[in-house]
Design brief:
Layout (H helix, E strand, L loop, with lengths): L7 E7 L13 H8 L4 E7 L9 E6 L2 E12 L3 H11 L3 E2 L2
Parallel strand pairs: 1-5
Antiparallel strand pairs: 1-2, 2-4, 3-4
Bound molecules: zinc ion (ZN).
Length: 96
C-alpha cells in the first residue's frame, strides 16, 4: 500500500505586494501597496519545513490555522482573473 503525504498545496490568497521589510504598519509605501485590490496571487504553501528561507504565510485547513513557507507562483491582475483561474484549476481562494 502506498501512502501519499500532502506536503504542499496551492491556494489563491490576497498577497499584498511587499515594498520593504517594515510592512504596511510602519511604511507608507507598503501601506499604499497593501490597499490595492489587485493583489491576489496563486501561492504554493509548504506544510512541512523547507530548507530554503521563504516568507511565511497563514492559511486555514479544516478550520485549523497553519503557518507555512510559501512561494508566489502567479499574480493576478484582479479578483475576477483570480476567480477564473480558481474555477478552471479547482484551486481554493482565501478571502481573509
Ligand atoms: Zn515599505
Amino acid at each position: 500500500m502506498k501512502v501519499f503525504i500532502i506536503n504542499h498545496l496551492e491556494i489563491i490568497k490576497r498577497m499584498p505586494r511587499i515594498h520593504c521589510a517594515r510592512g504596511p504598519l510602519r511604511c507608507d509605501k507598503c501601506k499604499e501597496l497593501d490597499k490595492k485590490e489587485n493583489s491576489y496571487a496563486l501561492i504554493k504553501v509548504f506544510l512541512e519545513p523547507v530548507d530554503h528561507a521563504s516568507p511565511i504565510t497563514e492559511i486555514q485547513i479544516n478550520g485549523e490555522k497553519i503557518f507555512g513557507a510559501y512561494n508566489v507562483i502567479q499574480r493576478f491582475e484582479d479578483i475576477s482573473e483570480a476567480k477564473k483561474y480558481a474555477e478552471e484549476n479547482k484551486v481554493e481562494i482565501i478571502y481573509y
